[in-house]
Amino acid sequence: MDHYKSWAGLKKLLNESLCDTLKKRVTYFLTRYHDVHNSYGRAAILFEGKELVCFSWIEMYYQERDLTPLYQEMPDASYSELKEKMKPTWDANCTYYEMDFLKAVLQFRNLPIQEALESENYIIKVLAIMDRRVGKRTLSTILENEAYKDFPAWVRQFYELRLSQANMI
Predict the structure, then answer these.
(1) What is the DSSP string of 44-64?
(2) What is the pLDDT, as a whole number, of residue 156?
(3) Inter-residue long-range contacts of 60-67, CB under 8 Å, 24+ positions, other chains counted
(4) Buried b / exposed e along 121-157 (16+ C-beta atoms within 10 A)
(5) What 3-state DSSP class applies to 4?
(6) Residue in 71, 91, 69 with CA at minimum distance from that of residue 150
(7) From CA 22, how far away is CA 3, in angstroms rounded?
(8) What is the edge-to-edge ordering of all strands in the sheet holding 26-32?
(9) What would the pLDDT profile of 65-88 be if each residue is shown by its tens digit?
(10) What is the model's pLDDT at position 99?
(11) How far is the C-alpha of 10 from the C-alpha of 81, rounded, in Å?
């Protein structure tokens, strides 16, 4: 994982990258419980104080539960191959924990906006659609193509939020 100095610095970067209509309305949250075994944590994205999506340490156990039968079926497969096999299920159910969120934030900060919008990682897509670099023309194309309607509900809500805040739907 990329290095970073502090969550406060990453949060500031995310807040500064928000489009004007979402500034001070969208909040990013990340905490790590250092006194707990394995330093479990929790991350969330909130809109006007309402939690839209949560990435909690418990999801890590759901991921492990999902991978256990695959280990038995495919003992020679690598961990990344098994994770890739589970990706559609995890995408649909938002089975991601705070470290998945943090990894996505670290990747997002170095991506051009078009690449972020086209990412296979739905967390990166969510961060990208709320970014100020996504202008009216790009939003019009997104609305016209309607590809976002095929995304899982937890992702689609961010596209609909951005489009509604731009008075496009």
Answers:
(1) EEEETTEEEEEEETHHHHHHH
(2) 98
(3) 60/97, 60/99, 62/95, 63/90, 63/95, 63/97, 66/90, 66/95
(4) bbbbbbbbbbbeebeeebbeebeeeeebeebeebbeb
(5) coil
(6) 91
(7) 27
(8) 26-32, 41-47, 50-56
(9) 999 998 889 989 998 999 999 999
(10) 92
(11) 30
Question: What gap in Å lies between CA 126 and CA 159, rounded to an integer?
Answer: 8
- Cα separation, 51 vs 123, whole angstroms: 15
d(CA 153, CA 58): 20
**Which pairing describes strands 26-32 and 50-56: parallel, antiparallel, or unpaired?**
unpaired
pTM: 0.91
Q: Give yes or no for a contact between 11 and 25, defined as CB atoms under 8 angstroms apart.
A: no
Taking residues 43-58, what's their average pLDDT?
95
The single-letter code of the amino acid at 139 is L
Could you give the CA distance from residue 17 to residue 22 in angstroms, rounded to a whole number?
Answer: 10
Query: Most distant CA pair in the chain: distance in Å?
Result: 51
CB 128 within 8 A of CB 108: yes
